[in-house]
Amino acid sequence: MKMNSKIAITVSTVLIIGSLLIPIGAVAQSPTGQARGVCGRFNEVSGKVNDRFADRLAKLETKRTNRLAEIAKRRADRDAKLASNRAKWDAERAEHFKKLESKANTDNQKAAVSTFEATVNAAVATRRTAVDKAIADYRAGVDSAIASRKTQIDAAISTFKSSQQAAISKAQSDCASGVDGKTVREALTSSLKAARDKLKSDVAAAEKVKDQIAALEQTRRTAIQQAISDFKTTVQTATVALKAAFGKTATTSPAATP
Predict the structure, then answer these.
(1) Model confidence over 81-104: pLDDT tens digits?
(2) d(Cα 178, Cα 165) in Å, to the nearest integer?
C-alpha cells in the first residue's frame, strides 16, 4: 500500500483545523480603545465562530469518511486482483503438472512427479498463507493507526475549543468588570496564541503516525520476502529430486504464485 493510503495529516486537514483560529484572531486584533473593537463585538462574533467551527468539523468528518471508503475500495480492488491472478496461476500450474505427468513413464518417475506436485502445492499454500497474514497484519496496523490519529486529533480540537471559549469568557468577564480594552485585547491575543500553539503541537504529535506506517510497511515487506524465499528454496529442492528421477531431462519450474 503506497503513500496515498497512508494516514499522515493532510494539508487540507491542517487547513480545516487552522481555519478555526481565524475569526477570534480577528476580534483580538481590533483597534485599541474602541468599544466595538473588543468588548463590543463578542455577541456578534461568537455565533459566527460557533457556526464556522461546526461547519469545519462537519467537513473534517466527511473527509475522514471519504478517506476510509477509499481505503476500503482500494483494498477490495487489490484483493480481487490477487484472487484473479492466483486463479490464473493455479490453472497454469495444473497445466504444467499435466505435462510432467505425460513425460513420466516409469513407476519411479510417476512417484517423483506425484511427490513434486504435492510438495509444490503445499509450498504454494504455505506461501499464500504467509502473504495473506502479512497483508492482514499490515491492514490491522493501519486501521489501528487511523483510530489512534482520530482520537488524537479529536482531543486536540476539543482542547482547543475549550481553551478558545475560556479565553473569550475571560475577556467578556474583564470587559464587564471595566478592564481597559487594550489589556483585554492583549490578554485575549495571548490566550488564543497559546491555544493555537497547543493545537499545532498536538497535530504535529498526531503526524508521527507516519513513522508507524513506515514500520508496518517494512514488516510486511520483510514477511513477504521471507515467504518468497522459503517458497523458492522448497521448490528448488523438490526440483532437484524430480530431475534426478527423470535423468535431468525434465523442465520442472512451476509458475511463481504469491
Answers:
(1) 999 999 999 999 999 999 999 999
(2) 20
**Which DSSP string do the residues of 141-189 spell out, in sequence order?**
HHHHHHHHHHHHHHHHHHHHHHHHHHHHHHHHHHHHTT--HHHHHHHHH
Is residue 253 pLDDT above 60, yes or no? no
Q: d(Cα 98, Cα 115) in Å, to the nearest integer?
A: 14
Q: Which tens digits make up the pLDDT trace of 166-186? A: 988 898 888 888 888 888 888
> From CA 112, how far away is CA 122, in angstroms rounded?
15
**CA-CA distance, 7 to 210, in Å (whole number)?**
7
Residue with cell 474602541: 34
Spacing of C-alpha 30 from chain mean position: 42
Neighbours of 154 (CB within 10 A): 13
Closest C-alpha to 160, from 16, 8, 7: 16
> Rounded to the nearest 10 degrees, what angle do helices 181-206 and 11-18 cross at?
160
Q: Which amino acid is at 234?
A: T
Instruction: Please answer whether residues 258 and 82 qualify as being in contact, where contact means their C-beta atoms are separated by less than 8 angstroms.
Output: yes
- Contact present, 21 and 192 (Cβ < 8 Å): yes
Helices 181-206, 107-176: crossing angle, 10 deg rounding: 170
Q: Which of 219, 199, 220 is nearest to 14 (CA)?
A: 199
**Whole-number Å distance between alpha carbons of 135 and 117:** 27
SS3 85: helix
CB 227 within 8 A of CB 134: yes
